[in-house]
Amino acid sequence: MRRLLNGIYEGAAWLAGLFMIGILVFVLWSIIIRQMGTNFPGLDAYAGYSMAAAGFLALASTFRKNEHIRVTLVLAALKPRARHYLNLFTLVVAIVLSGALAWFSIKLVMDSYSYHDLSTGEDATPLWIPQLGMAMGCVLFCIAIVDEFISSIKKGHSRTEEEPVSMQT
């Protein structure tokens, strides 16, 4: 299961990287076309869609690699056991918040699909297509946080903590 989850997180990170390349391609294409005196509808929107997809798809991998910004001032002042319980509490809060974000992102995609929402630009892209990247990224992020919570309970410490905590009272 660990290899499967890590593979999914890494695959989403690679997909985020491809979307970052997409941003570059769309912006450069837009610049070149404008210099030629012509227009291609939707390039700016596609660059924006790619930016959103890249940001959300990278969340899970970044979290699993412990590269999210953390304020450790309070954690560093605590004893290992208190640090562990505070870390578990913050993971529970993160699960609730990321779960809500994932739920409403999926709902947004489903609503956009059922209402046949189109972008307001000249390209008239069905909005559920670019919203998929956000929804997938939010779901993977929530899974990564749940994964970390379960791992922290099993091991007695998180990857962000230096040493295991004895769970005996």
TrEMBL record:
Provide the protein's localization. Answer: Cell inner membrane
Describe the location of the Tripartite ATP-independent periplasmic transporters DctQ component domain by residue ranges: 23-154
Starting at the broadest rank, the lineage of the source organism is: Bacteria, Pseudomonadati, Pseudomonadota, Betaproteobacteria, Burkholderiales
Family per UniProt? Belongs to the TRAP transporter small permease family.
Instruction: Give any single GO term for biological process.
Output: C4-dicarboxylate transport
**Which ranges does the record mark as transmembrane?**
12-33, 45-63, 84-106, 126-146
Q: Which membrane topology term applies here?
A: Multi-pass membrane protein
- Any keyword Transcription regulation? no
Q: What is this protein called?
A: TRAP transporter small permease protein
**GO molecular function per UniProt:** transmembrane transporter activity
Q: State the protein's purpose.
A: Part of the tripartite ATP-independent periplasmic (TRAP) transport system.
Cellular-component GO terms for this entry: plasma membrane
Is Transport set as a keyword in this record?
yes
Q: Which InterPro entries match?
A: DctQ (IPR055348), TRAP_DctQ (IPR007387)
Q: What does the subunit section of this Swiss-Prot or TrEMBL entry state?
A: The complex comprises the extracytoplasmic solute receptor protein and the two transmembrane proteins.
Which keywords does this Swiss-Prot/TrEMBL entry list?
A: Cell inner membrane, Cell membrane, Membrane, Transmembrane, Transmembrane helix, Transport
